[in-house]
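step=encode ok
step=design start
structure_in=
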């Protein structure tokens, strides 16, 4: 159980870091984890509304990165 939580946090940190590299958005490790977690939810909702779903690690990562990029884009749009 603890190993699964740690693995999920590491994956979320990777997603947040990847999003930072793609979008030019730098944040802390905790920020990366939060962006990764929330971005995964956002990406799943968007892809689900399009009638698809992610099955597997690679597609899950891609959906999470997509959702995180959308999240950062919306944050920048609202912040201005």
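sequence_out=
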């Amino acid at each position: 159980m603890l190993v699964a939580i740690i693995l999920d946090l590491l994956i979320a940190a990777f997603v947040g870091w990847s999003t930072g590299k793609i979008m030019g958005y730098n944040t802390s490790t905790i920020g990366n984890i939060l962006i990764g977690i929330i971005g995964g939810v956002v990406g799943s909702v968007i892809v689900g509304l399009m009638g698809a779903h992610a099955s597997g690690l690679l597609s899950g990562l891609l959906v999470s990165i997509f959702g995180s990029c959308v999240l950062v884009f919306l944050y920048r749009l609202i912040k201005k």
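step=design ok
step=annotate ok -> The two ends are 41 Å apart (CA to CA).
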